[in-house]
């Protein structure tokens, strides 16, 4: 090698050196183009172990839970059931609560009006996500994945039982709400999955719940479901409780399935009794509930019904038809103005009592916040001292600085003097607008009691037992004494309806709607003469809650437009004057049946009159689904 | 890694300095060519560049225009060489001489180039190319156009200056970024904007350019689409904007220039909203009657009563808005000595904006938003070029920015729309004694809604963002021979931002309950670098000039975000998260890493200086592409024919036809390719199905154009560009049975055609008088032509995802979809529900349409309801049963701008007028104002009171009174339709705006001498400037230049949607510039 002079270097190869140095620096910084996503796990990382497979089931429970614990479509259905009232245009509440029921739901993936999109889509996708997670878990276990844990031998039966429970619970939600659905499990050939009538979905759901009951009841050793399935801190469901919960959900499915009076007559009440008698109020009674995880990351557990829908008094209030129930002969019939109605004199401690302790009344802080506005004029029947009084309901002015009322132009019939405060503190952490911590129920033991009692009454047998079941809350919390062992079936049924309206208020998103659609034929009030367009107010013919839906109310949800478009099915909807759905349809695979209600525009109409439709039966999605499932399975096999 | 890179750069700079010192003593001239460069008699041109390419020597003229080139002995062979002399604003001149030992004198007198045909362009080309020799369109903005009225950031500086460039200040909030779209839209990806690739001095920038100051900018080049931008590959389908900052290279040799510029001004809002001045409440004796603390409607249903004397109507906007200060201080030093030039600058900017909240509050700790509200920026820049030898030079640049942006935390531009018109926002105190009653209403009580007093909200929340930005660039060129050169460059962009959003403990909610306080902090750190090595070959073969560039490039970016929030402070006055109990804390971290490796070759041939051919090919690999589709290829082929060179037409200086076709890409969003499961306290759940085959969207653009210059006065550029962007990266929904909610796929095509015209006219051009006029025009039409997914709507990104702009096959991009109202009886009859058979035309028509007629607003109503509280319009339903209808189109018919520079002796005027013709805006604030608060100006019925309209004359039999045309509140509530999008709130967004105006006076050297400053001061210029001075529009909102906010879920450059935005405002200022 020959050294060259520095001057030469600077003249001729200095540039080369600088370039070489630059290239070196660049090469040193040269990383691979393969970059892992550090933020969310992919399949491999998500299901890397049996423990993760179990967490997939936990995720499924969370999806299932939020399918009914979120604001949509519960708020809309409660308003349609004349249980809540609200004037706001969110989530369809304004239009579905209109009197008379002039409007149909807009089954559109793109039309933002009143956001029916979320009402219709939310339970659908949440519940099917839960079903798919449960299916994957069962497949993984079939492939030999072991779920680790301190009681390893018991964990696999636990996971299998819980997965069956989830399959059944999620499909039950679909069957109660929608007119059609997919009924499939881990063994179904994806190519054979097609829309079927809700009856078929119900059957599969019931079979899965039965399987869960069998697995949980027959477990060789006792188990508890993991705490993250329902975010429990203590008292996670035991195998016995899982079986009880499955029994209650089966009873609910059968009882809430009818979408009109006729179908209600076809309910197998003996079966309902059988399920309910083994439900969550049998044996050691418990409420089905989650523990809210507060404002911390990632807020996986909360309950909108106990917050938005139940406890924000300028958002929703208790429908005046429910208020009618509090006092016999009380004239809750509002004039066409915003005057405050008189204070109802109710013997029910849940409205009027002061002495029942421990039922989660509004906190002292927030009770004071309400009371301080004008305690003399608007007495609250919740003890201010200690905040543990007896009221579930509170009388409050229609308009106040704290709780401004609705716009009058949206109809005076919405104006109510009663708010619901039972879960005020649990549900909503004012004024931080964050979700609170603490126990938040979604099915009360009382609901199981009432289903059990109803099954007995409908069979006209052991009415004294029914009276006892009803009185657990009727007398136990309400201090009402009108139901005795000697009460007639009609008296018992009236009490059941009363308790459904009062005791179950705000817990569960479909109880009121499901009951109203099956209990009675339509109520059909008349309206103030000349009042068309905005501001109608019933004049006569309206009755208290429990006497049926108003004509044109939504009785079933349609399959969401997005799903229909994916399978090239015509779009349809329900609600409004023409929106009465017929009997539950028997739907064959792929047989398009357009029916009921007004057919909403698909995606719009261009200025030249062209109707914008979807891309036809686009779905390589199906292909992708198959391929993906195969891949999932292979990955799961590797866990063996 | 960062340290390593920085160290490498420092070593290189250090080495350059050593080499410079070593070479200093070796200047031994064998041939010395010298002379003088002038721009006319007695007009020396200092700072002109003089180059002799064949022997790789170059220099710049001194202040007297003189230059000297020294060529070493060993390079002299008696060969013929070319001297090229260039100076901005003048036509370059070349002269061929024989290189011999000894001195030679070569003087040059350059001719003025008022049409700027010879300015050099480097963006998208193999090497610097005169614009007249380009085969595609590149927009260029010169220093003059940028500096008369310096914009607050580089993107805003483009506004109205280049055809086909759509600059959108979606929000006037100081310190926020500005969106820009070049020609038509490129991407359909939800949430993506249409931003082009932004390059500053070779640094591919990330994030906002709002941190850069315009005073440093020497030139901006705009490459508008794939026909030209293919050189930048998979990230350039939306075009490229390249910014060049001053480097001192324009200085005369040996001269140091010092510039001090101070601008002081005031900002304010010129427009007001039409607000209801009337009410419909019961009054007795001139006093409102209250029930339950609220006014009682008087039963008429018509808001036509003036507010009583004790509660007069108020201009509440004036209580929230007010003048803000605007000032910039700029200091720059430039110097050039031989092969060294440098420029250093400092800028300080204060931009308060128009929210006037100059009060201290009782919040703990006190929030004293006042003079420090708004955006404060400090920038330092240092650029240096150093010739190390004749073959080797090095350029470095360093930019440091620090900004502080403080605003009120909760924008008043929502709440202010809902305040009852008669309340004094500052008039009542709260129950806790604090000022600005939180739930102020008509009687000191609540309005019928839940909007808090904006003054209260402003006084208890604040939001601060601190950003620092470091950009570094390094470039070296080595020219071992006259035809071969190598270049290496490295760019570094680091930004760090820290946001704190604070609500004080004790802040009252609307219901008067005291907040426990909250704080969130969001820290974002982004580090990106890009590097490139290239070899360029240029060689002339007779009259054929050829050029070729081969290059390899890499990009690497790491983005980290840490977010923390907490609520419920334990202690009153400690706004830190340590003061929050643990269950109330939220933590979030996020990281994104992106890498790219690219190679390309670009070359061209020019024959006889008139037949121009250009081609390139580029292959890109990116970590953002699916692993099964890692590399993609792009190309460009273009050609031009300078017709005017072959056919000498009288008076025609240039006539060129050009055509170009090219492809470029759009990289998918970071997470799109990945299969993801969500994980959290709710367990694991499938979310997005991965896609290993995910490709970048591919844009193919075909461009045709004609450039002409004639009569030495006119320069015109006409371009038609058609852009087809296929393989749009979209989240495609999956069936519910999939479990995963969606998969990102290449699933659509967006097409757009743009017509552009740019006209430059030299109205006068003499030493004492010059007057130029520039006009730009563009018209763009865009349509989605293919969509392999379900049509979807995107839009304003507000709560509940209300969306209005429909993405569907065959639908104009930017079309608004919603309801419209029946206007004719046939409209009513179109509705299938009005037919007994349930289908249009089947059975009988159930409605007697003759009982309906169009009212004064042109909306069909039931005639009998006219003049009653039941008068209500009807939603239109098409014959196919659809209610969703195209109700507007945000795309303007065309946009034009007119700018002029007039200079007469020392006096000069510069003005820029923008004209947007057509295009709709959705006025959401107006709709909300009709929701329930009754505040919209169109609800004020007092002007109609007591009148009789033609409707009554035309409908004598209806006989309903009043016939004044007054509309009841219910009528508007029906139209409001719970804020469902409908045609009533679609307004024309046409406007003309005087964007920039400057009247300036520069003192001549004679005048400076006369006042005794000539020894001290090189030049002195004073000016009065205005920005957004006057707007002519029929749009009823605060600002017709309103768009969906950036990051709000849509494309701010297309979606004209008034979303309660911070409006753009006007600024008046005075500026003094002193050169030393």
Mean pLDDT of chain A: 77
The number of strands of chain A is 12
Rg calc of chain B: 32 Å
Oligomeric description of these chains: heterodimer
Chain-wise SSE layout:
The complex is a heterodimer of chains A (640) and B (1076).
Chain A lengths: L5 H23 L14 H4 L3 H20 L4 H7 L3 E2 L7 H4 L19 H27 L9 H26 L2 E3 L12 E3 H20 L21 H18 L4 H4 L4 H8 L11 E6 L10 H8 L5 E2 L1 H4 L25 H4 L11 H8 L21 E3 L22 E3 L3 H4 E2 L4 E2 L1 E7 L1 H15 L3 H12 L14 H14 L8 H9 L6 E2 L10 E3 L20 H6 L53 H18 L3
Antiparallel strand pairs in A: 1-5, 2-3, 4-10, 6-7, 8-9, 11-12
Chain B lengths: L1 H22 L7 E8 L10 E4 L4 E4 L5 E6 L8 E7 L6 E6 L3 E4 L2 E2 L10 E2 L7 E2 L7 E4 L1 H5 L17 E4 L10 E4 L14 E4 L2 E2 L12 E7 L2 H4 L10 E6 L9 E14 L9 E2 L3 E2 L2 E2 L1 E2 L2 E2 L9 E2 L10 H4 L3 E14 L2 E12 L22 E14 L4 E16 L4 H4 L38 H7 E18 L5 E20 L14 E24 L2 E24 L17 E23 L3 E12 L8 E11 L1 H4 L5 E15 L9 E5 L2 E7 L7 E14 L3 E13 L2 E5 L8 E5 L1 E18 L3 E19 L4 E3 L10 E3 L7 E4 L6 H6 L21 E3 L5 E3 L22 E5 L4 E11 L2 E11 L2 E4 H6 L20 H5 L14 H8 L9 E3 L2 E13 L1 H6 L8 E15 L23 E2 L7 E10 L1
Parallel strand pairs in B: 1-7, 1-8, 14-17, 38-42, 53-57
Antiparallel strand pairs in B: 1-4, 2-3, 2-5, 5-6, 9-10, 11-16, 12-13, 14-15, 16-17, 18-25, 18-58, 19-24, 20-21, 22-23, 25-26, 26-27, 27-28, 28-29, 29-30, 30-31, 31-32, 32-33, 33-34, 34-35, 35-36, 36-39, 37-38, 39-40, 40-43, 41-42, 43-44, 44-51, 45-46, 47-50, 48-49, 51-52, 52-55, 53-54, 55-56, 56-58
């Amino acid at each position: 090698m020959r050294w060259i002079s520095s001057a030469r270097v600077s003249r001729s190869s200095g540039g080369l050196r600088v370039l070489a140095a630059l290239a070196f620096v660049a090469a040193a910084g040269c990383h691979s183009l393969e970059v892992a996503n550090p933020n969310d796990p992919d399949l491999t990382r998500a299901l890397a172990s049996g423990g993760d497979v179990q967490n997939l089931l936990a995720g499924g429970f969370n999806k299932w839970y939020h399918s009914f614990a979120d604001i949509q479509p519960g708020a809309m259905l409660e308003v349609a059931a004349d249980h809540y009232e609200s004037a706001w245009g969110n989530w369809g509440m304004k239009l579905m609560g209109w009197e008379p029921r002039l409007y149909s739901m807009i089954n559109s993936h793109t039309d933002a009006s009143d956001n029916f999109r979320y009402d219709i889509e939310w339970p659908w996708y949440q519940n099917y996500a839960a079903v798919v997670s449960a299916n994957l878990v069962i497949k993984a276990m079939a492939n030999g994945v072991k779920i680790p844990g301190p009681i390893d031998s018991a964990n696999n039966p636990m996971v299998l039982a819980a997965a069956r429970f989830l399959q059944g619970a999620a499909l039950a939600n679909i069957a109660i709400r929608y007119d059609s659905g997919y009924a499939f499990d881990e063994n179904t050939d994806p190519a054979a999955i097609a829309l079927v009538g809700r009856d078929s979905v119900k059957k599969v759901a019931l079979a899965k719940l039965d399987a869960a009951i069998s697995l949980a009841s027959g477990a060789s050793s006792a188990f508890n479901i993991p705490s993250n399935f329902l975010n429990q801190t203590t008292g996670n469901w035991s195998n016995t409780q899982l079986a009880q919960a499955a029994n209650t959900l089966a009873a609910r499915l059968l009882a809430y399935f009818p979408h009109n009076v006729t179908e209600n007559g076809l309910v197998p009440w003996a079966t309902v009794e059988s399920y309910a008698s083994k439900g969550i109020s049998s044996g050691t009674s418990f409420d089905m509930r989650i523990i809210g995880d507060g404002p911390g990351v990632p807020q996986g557990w909360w309950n909108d019904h106990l917050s938005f829908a139940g406890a924000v008094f300028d958002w929703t209030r208790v429908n005046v038809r429910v208020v009618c129930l509090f006092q016999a002969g009380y004239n809750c019939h509002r004039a066409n103005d915003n005057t405050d109605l008189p204070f109802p004199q109710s013997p029910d401690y849940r409205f009027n009592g002061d002495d029942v302790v421990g039922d989660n009344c509004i906190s002292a802080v927030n009770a004071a916040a309400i009371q301080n506005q004008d305690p003399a004029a608007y007495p609250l029947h919740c003890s201010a001292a200690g905040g543990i009084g007896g009221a579930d309901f509170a009388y409050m002015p229609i308009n106040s600085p704290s709780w401004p009322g609705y716009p009058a132009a949206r109809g005076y019939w919405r104006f109510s003097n009663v708010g619901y405060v039972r879960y005020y503190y649990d549900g909503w952490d004012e004024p931080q607008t964050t979700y609170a911590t603490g126990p938040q129920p979604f099915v009360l033991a009382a609901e199981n009691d009432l289903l059990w009692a109803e099954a007995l009454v409908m069979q006209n047998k052991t009415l004294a037992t029914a009276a006892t079941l009803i009185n657990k809350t009727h007398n136990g919390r309400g201090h009402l004494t009108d139901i005795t062992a000697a009460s007639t079936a009609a008296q018992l049924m009236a009490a059941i309806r009363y308790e459904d309206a009062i005791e179950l208020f705000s817990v569960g998103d479909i109880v009121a709607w499901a009951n109203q659609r099956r209990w009675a034929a339509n109520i059909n009030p008349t309206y103030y003469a000349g009042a068309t367009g905005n501001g109608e107010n019933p004049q006569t013919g309206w009755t208290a809650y429990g006497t049926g839906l108003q004509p044109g109310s939504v009785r079933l949800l349609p399959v969401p437009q997005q799903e229909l478009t994916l399978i090239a099915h015509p779009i349809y909807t329900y609600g409004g004057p023409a929106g009465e759905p017929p009997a539950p349809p028997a739907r064959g695979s792929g047989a398009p049946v357009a029916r009921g209600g007004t057919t909403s525009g698909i995606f719009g109409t261009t200025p030249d009159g062209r109707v914008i439709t979807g891309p036809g039966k686009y779905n390589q999605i199906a292909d992708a689904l198959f391929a993906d499932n195969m891949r999932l399975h292979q990955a799961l096999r590797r866990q063996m | 890694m960062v340290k390593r890179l920085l160290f490498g750069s420092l070593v290189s700079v250090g080495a350059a300095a050593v080499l410079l010192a070593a070479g200093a003593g070796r200047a031994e001239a064998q041939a010395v060519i010298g002379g003088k460069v002038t721009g006319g008699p007695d007009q020396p041109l200092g700072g002109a560049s003089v180059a002799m390419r064949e022997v790789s020597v170059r220099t710049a003229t001194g202040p007297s225009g003189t230059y000297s080139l020294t060529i070493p002995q060993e390079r002299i062979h008696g060969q013929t060489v070319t001297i090229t002399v260039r100076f901005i604003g003048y036509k370059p001149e070349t002269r061929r001489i024989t290189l011999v030992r000894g001195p030679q004198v070569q003087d040059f007198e350059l001719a003025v180039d008022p049409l700027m045909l010879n300015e050099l362009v480097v963006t998208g080309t193999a090497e610097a190319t005169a614009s007249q020799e380009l085969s595609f369109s590149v927009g260029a903005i010169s220093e003059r156009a940028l500096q008369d009225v310096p914009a607050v950031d580089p993107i805003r500086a483009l506004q109205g200056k280049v055809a086909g460039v759509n600059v959108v200040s979606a929000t006037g909030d100081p310190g926020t970024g500005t969106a820009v779209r070049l020609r038509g839209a490129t991407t359909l990806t939800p949430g993506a904007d249409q931003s082009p690739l932004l390059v500053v001095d070779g640094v591919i920038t990330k994030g906002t350019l709002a941190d850069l100051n315009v005073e440093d900018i020497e030139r901006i080049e705009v490459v508008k689409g794939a026909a030209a931008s293919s050189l930048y590959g998979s990230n350039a389908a939306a075009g490229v904007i390249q910014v060049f900052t001053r480097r001192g290279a324009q200085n005369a040799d040996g001269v140091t220039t010092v510039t001090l510029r101070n601008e002081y001004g005031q900002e304010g809002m010129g427009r007001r909203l039409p607000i209801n001045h009337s009410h419909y409440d019961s009054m007795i004796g001139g006093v409102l009657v209250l029930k339950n603390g609220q006014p009682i409607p008087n039963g008429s249903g018509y808001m036509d009563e003036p507010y009583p004397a004790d509660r007069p109507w108020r201009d509440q906007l004036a209580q929230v808005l007010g003048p803000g200060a605007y000032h910039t201080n700029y200091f720059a030093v430039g110097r050039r000595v031989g092969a060294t030039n440098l420029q250093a600058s400092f800028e300080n900017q204060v931009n308060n904006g128009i929210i006037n909240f100059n009060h201290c509050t009782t919040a703990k700790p006190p929030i004293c938003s006042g003079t420090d509200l708004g955006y404060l920026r400090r920038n330092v820049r240092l650029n240096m070029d150093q010739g190390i030898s004749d073959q080797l030079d090095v350029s470095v640049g360093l930019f440091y920015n620090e900004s502080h942006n403080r605003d009120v935390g909760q924008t008043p531009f929502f709440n202010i729309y809902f305040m009852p018109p008669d309340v004094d926002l500052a008039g009542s105190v709260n129950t806790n004694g604090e000022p600005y009653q939180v739930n102020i209403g008509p009687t000191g009580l609540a309005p019928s809604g839940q909007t808090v007093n904006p003054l209260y909200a402003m006084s208890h929340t604040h939001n601060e963002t601190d950003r620092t930005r470091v950009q570094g660039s390094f470039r070296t060129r080595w020219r071992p021979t006259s035809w071969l050169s190598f270049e290496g460059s490295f760019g570094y962009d680091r930004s760090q931002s820290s946001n704190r959003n604070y609500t004080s403990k004790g802040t009252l909610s609307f219901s008067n309950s005291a907040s426990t306080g909250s704080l969130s902090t969001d820290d974002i750190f982004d580090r990106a670098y890009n590097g490139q090595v290239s070899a360029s070959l240029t060689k002339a073969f007779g009259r054929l000039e050829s050029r070729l560039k081969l290059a390899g490039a890499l990009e690497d970016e790491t983005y980290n975000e840490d977010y923390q929030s907490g609520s419920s402070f334990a202690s009153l006055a400690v706004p830190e998260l340590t003061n929050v109990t643990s269950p109330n804390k939220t933590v979030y971290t996020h990281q994104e890493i992106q890498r790219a490796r690219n190679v390309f070759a670009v070359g061209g041939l020019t024959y006889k200086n008139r037949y121009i051919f250009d081609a390139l090919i580029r292959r890109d690999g990116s970590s953002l592409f699916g692993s099964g589709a890692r590399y993609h290829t792009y190309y460009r082929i273009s050609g031009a024919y300078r017709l005017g060179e072959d056919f000498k037409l009288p008076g025609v200086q240039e006539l060129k036809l050009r055509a170009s076709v090219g492809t470029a890409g759009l990289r998918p969003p970071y997470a799109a390719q990945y299969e993801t499961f969500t994980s959290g306290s709710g367990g694991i759940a499938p979310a997005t199905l991965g896609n290993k085959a995910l490709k970048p969207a591919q844009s193919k653009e075909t461009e045709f154009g004609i450039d002409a210059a004639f009569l030495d006065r006119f320069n015109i550029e006409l371009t038609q560009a058609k852009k087809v962007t296929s393989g749009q990266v979209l989240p495609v929904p999956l069936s519910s049975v999939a479990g995963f909610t969606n998969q990102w796929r290449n699933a659509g095509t967006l097409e757009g055609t743009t017509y552009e015209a740019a006209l430059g006219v030299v109205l006068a051009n003499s030493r004492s008088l010059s007057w130029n006029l520039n006009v730009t025009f563009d018209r763009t039409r865009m349509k989605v032509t293919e969509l392999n997914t379900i049509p979807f709507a995107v839009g304003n990104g507000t709560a509940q995802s209300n969306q209005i702009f429909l993405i569907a096959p065959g639908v104009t991009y930017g079309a608004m979809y919603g309801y419209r109202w029946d206007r004719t009886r046939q409209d009513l009859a179109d509705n299938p529900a009005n037919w007994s058979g349930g289908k249009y035309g089947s059975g009988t028509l159930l409605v007697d349409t003759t009982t309906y007629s169009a009212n004064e607003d042109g909306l069909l109503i039931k005639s009998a309801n006219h003049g009653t509280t039941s008068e209500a319009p009807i939603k239109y339903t098409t014959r196919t049963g659809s209610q969703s209808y195209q109700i507007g189109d945000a795309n303007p018919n065309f946009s034009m701008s007119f700018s002029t520079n007039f200079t007469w002796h020392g006096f000069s005027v510069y003005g820029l007028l923008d004209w947007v013709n057509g295009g709709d805006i959705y006025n959401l604030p107006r709709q909300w104002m009709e929701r329930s608060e009754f505040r919209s100006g169109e609800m004020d019925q007092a002007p109609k009171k007591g009148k009789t309209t033609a409707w009554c004359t035309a409908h004598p039999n209806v006989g309903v009174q009043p016939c004044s045309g007054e509309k009841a509140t219910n009528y508007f509530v029906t139209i409001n339709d719970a804020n469902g999008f409908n045609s009533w709130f679609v307004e024309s967004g046409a406007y003309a705006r005087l964007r920039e105006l400057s009247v300036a006076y520069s003192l001549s050297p004679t005048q400076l001498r006369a006042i005794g400053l000539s020894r001290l001061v090189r030049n002195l210029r004073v000016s009065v400037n205005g920005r957004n001075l006057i707007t002519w529009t029929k749009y009823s909102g605060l600002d017709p230049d309103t768009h969906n906010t950036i990051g709000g879920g849509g494309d701010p450059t297309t979606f004209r949607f008034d979303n309660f935005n911070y409006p753009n405002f006007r600024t008046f200022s005075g500026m003094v510039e002193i050169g030393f």
